Amino acid sequence: MNRKETHVLMKEAVPLARKLKGNWSARMKMALNTVIVKHYFEKPLSLENVNILLRKGVSYRRICKHYGVGRNDIASLKG
After folding, report:
1. Mean pLDDT value across the chain
2. DSSP secondary structure letters along the chain
C-alpha cells in the first residue's frame, strides 16, 4: 500500500470514526480497520490478500463467503 492509497483510506476512515461514540483513538482504530478490510475485499483473490485479511482479523468463513470459494480453494492458493 503506497502513500496515496493510505491517504484515501484515512479520508474514508475519519468521517466513519466521527459517527461512532467513545474514545477517539478507539473509534479511529475501528474505522481504519473497517476501511482497510473493505479495501482488500475489493481486490481479487490472492494468497497475499488472504494473508493480509487474516492478519486484520477477518475469518476464513467471511473470506470464503465474500469470494464465493471454499476453504480448499484458499488452501490451493498456497501451492
Report:
1. 94
2. --HHHHHHHHHHHHHHHHHS-S-HHHHHHHHHHHHHHHHHHTSPP-HHHHHHHHHTT--HHHHHHHHT--HHHHHHHT-
* Closest among 22, 71, 24 to 50, alpha carbons compared: 71
Confidence class for position 79, pLDDT limits 50, 70, 90: low
Which residues are CB-neighbours of 9 under 8 A, at least 6 positions away?
1, 32, 35, 36, 39
Cell of 73: 480453494
The answer to whether the beta carbons of residues 47 and 78 sit under 8 Å apart is yes
Count the Cβ atoms, other than its own, within 10 Å of residue 77.
14
Residues 36-68: tens digit of each pLDDT: 999 999 999 999 999 999 999 999 999 999 999
